[in-house]
Design a protein that fits this description.
alpha/beta, eight-stranded parallel β-barrel, 16% strand, binds flavin mononucleotide
Length: 361
């Protein structure tokens, strides 16, 4: 790719991995697995993004334990049985020139809830619901499950669940792992003073509230090959008075960089029903940019209402981020990468079968 090519289509080296371009498919729950197992849906859904040359494709949040699923239909990586079905997906994506990552997650107090089109709030035991855990006993909302406060044994077990899942991700052929510490799920619940009222070494001060995330990240880095990149997704702010905010995010980003995190994926919100957000085009980009300015040794991924190729290119050209993740635009147009190359006049390496694809707009 020539140096004057659009930045969106320039490669990025992360550890020993070279992303062919800066376009990333953001993790998106599909609520389509049985017992956490990937199936034909996941193969087709994730595979389609590779056919049109997305640089890196993330799976949806994959639960590190059955209790950590958001819904009964979540993807999972808590047992060796999950490895081979996911291996079909990684093989297909690699055979068609893209790279593939998996997001590892535990939903904490937001677990055991219905998939959006099946219902609202806590899943009843008759529908396969289960008891959930969190930093304390506060629920996310009255219709959500009431968690039991995690003991130190629970904390150790969840850390080990993340490590085991990362090791299985390696066996399944993934190129990257992302630790999900955003959107009000378990790790974010520990970070925010609004959801963590613990009085032990995991609650209270910034150092204490970040301890669980740091423990998980350190342990995952130890169990995931050093030559493969580790991503962490954070919510840069809770958008609520007294919550987690950008200043703490920047401080934590510096600490994560020193733990060997390669990319910070900067999202926001999801922790509290009291959040006040006015979303608009690129509304989370200033958070990514703040991290990029303040923290060295990390690449930064921007996400959130970045829809046009020109907008994505401008973010990279302005030095606000190093990678662009898109979610809903890829659901609307799974071949967004091909469309973006056409719009920006870039050469995109992609499968020959689709090279004649052309949009008139
Ligand atoms: C259907 C759907 C499922 C999502 N599931 C996840 C998920 O599993 N993990 C995650 O971190 N974010 C999830 N998100 C958030 C997206 O990754 C992304 O951050 C968000 O949609 C904003 O980007 P966009 O405006 O490009 O869609 C989901 C979003 C959508 C639309």
């Amino acid at each position: 790719m020539p140096d004057n090519a659009p930045k969106l289509f320039q490669p990025l080296k992360l550890q020993r991995l070279t992303l062919p371009n800066r376009i990333v498919v953001s993790p998106m729950c599909m609520y389509s697995a049985h017992d956490g197992l990937a199936n034909d849906f996941h193969l087709v859904h994730l595979g389609q993004f590779a056919l049109a040359g997305a640089g890196l494709i993330f799976t949806e949040a994959a639960a590190v334990s059955p209790e950590g699923r958001i819904s009964p239909e979540d993807l999972g990586l808590w047992s060796d049985d999950h490895i081979v079905p996911l291996g079909r997906v990684t093989d297909f994506i690699h055979a068609h020139g893209s790279l593939v990552g998996i997001q590892l997650a535990h939903a904490g107090r937001k677990a055991s809830t219905y998939a959006p089109w099946r219902g609202k709030g806590a899943v009843t035991p008759e529908h396969g619901g289960w008891g959930v855990i969190g930093p304390d006993t506060q629920s996310f909302a009255p219709i959500f499950p009431t968690p039991s406060a995690m003991t130190s044994v629970d904390i150790k077990r969840v850390i080990q669940d993340f490590v085991s899942a990362a090791q299985r991700a390696e066996m399944a052929g993934f190129d990257a792992v992302e630790v999900h510490a955003a959107h009000g799920y378990l790790l974010h619940q520990f970070l925010s003073p609004l959801s963590n009222s613990r009085t032990d070494e995991y609650g209270g001060s910034f150092e204490n509230r970040t301890r669980f995330v740091m423990d998980v990240v350190r342990a995952v880095r130890g169990g995931w090959p050093m030559h493969k990149p580790l991503f962490v997704r954070l919510s840069a702010t809770d958008w609520a008075e007294g919550g987690w905010d950008l200043e703490q995010t920047v401080k934590l980003a510096g600490l994560l960089s020193r733990e060997g995190v390669d990319v910070l994926d900067v999202s926001s919100g999801g922790l509290t029903t009291a959040q006040q957000i006015t979303p608009g085009p690129g509304y989370q980009v200033p958070f990514a940019s703040a991290v990029k300015v303040a923290v060295s040794g990390l690449d930064v991924m921007a996400v959130g209402m970045i829809e046009s190729p020109e907008q994505a290119e401008a973010i990279l050209q302005n030095g606000e981020a190093d990678l662009i993740a898109l979610g809903r635009p890829f659901l609307g147009d799974p071949h967004w990468s091909q469309f973006a190359a056409q719009k920006l006049g870039a050469d995109l390496e992609m499968v020959p079968q689709y090279q004649r694809g052309h949009r008139l707009d």
